[in-house]
Structures are given as structure tokens and as C-alpha cells.
Design a protein that fits this description.
31% helix; single chain
């Protein structure tokens, strides 16, 4: 029975890891993100809720995240807030991709990645 449990997983519910996400839902928040980035690292995770790859990368990001909240972590549902997603690209000078992670310090994007590259970024380097 242990063999089947290893293959199919335990029937016991896993504890879900919750990150300190701040919802990014309005273009006006980008001014605050830029301002706050002068004293605290700002991270934006752009996620497409209809994309399997985006969901997979998001789940990996959540499971690997192990930092104290020494940064602000924004979640952008780009399908619900396309205008915000477009403005993120203009304001922080990155071409739109999904999923995408942007790290903003001192008003500028200091790193960004998309798809599998998101989980290769060492966020602790930017705190």
C-alpha cells in the first residue's frame, strides 16, 4: 500500500502555503509601487489564470518562496486587469510576457523573467 501512496500521493490534505500577496488591480498603484521601491523591494507577479504553464510556474514559485516579508509581493491577474498589465510594461520598460516576474528597486526594473526563468531568480539578492 505504501507503494501506491507514493505514486498517487497521500489522501491527507496538504497544508496550503499562503504568500503575502498584495492584489494589483489598478493602474494608480504603479505610482505607489515606484515610490515604495525606493525603500523596499517591490515584486510583481503577472499571472494568466487560463494558462496551464502560468499556473504551474505560479505553484512552483509559491512552493519555493521562503523569504520573510522584506519586500512587497504583488499579484496581477492580467486577464482581469489587462490595462494594468499593459501599463506595467510601459512604466517599468519590460515587454509583456505571461507568466512574468518583475523586481523593482529605486523606481526601475532591476530584474525580470518569464516562464521557467521566474523560479531561477534568487529574490534574496534584491532585498
Amino acid at each position: 500500500m505504501g507503494f501506491l501512496k507514493n505514486i498517487f500521493g497521500s489522501s491527507e490534505p496538504k497544508e496550503e502555503k499562503i504568500l503575502p500577496w498584495l492584489p494589483l488591480t489598478d493602474v494608480s498603484q504603479l505610482v505607489a509601487i515606484e515610490k515604495h521601491s525606493k525603500t523596499k523591494t517591490q515584486v510583481i507577479f503577472k499571472h494568466s489564470t487560463r494558462c496551464g504553464i502560468s499556473s504551474m510556474v505560479m505553484n512552483q514559485f509559491v512552493s519555493m518562496y521562503d523569504l520573510d516579508s522584506n519586500l512587497d509581493l504583488y499579484y496581477l491577474d492580467l486577464l482581469s486587469h489587462r490595462d494594468v498589465s499593459n501599463e506595467v510594461g510601459y512604466k517599468f520598460q519590460v515587454m509583456h510576457q505571461s507568466p512574468q516576474l518583475l523586481i523593482v528597486k529605486n523606481g526601475t526594473t532591476v530584474a525580470h523573467a518569464s516562464h521557467g526563468g521566474i523560479n531561477e531568480i534568487d529574490l534574496s539578492r534584491f532585498i
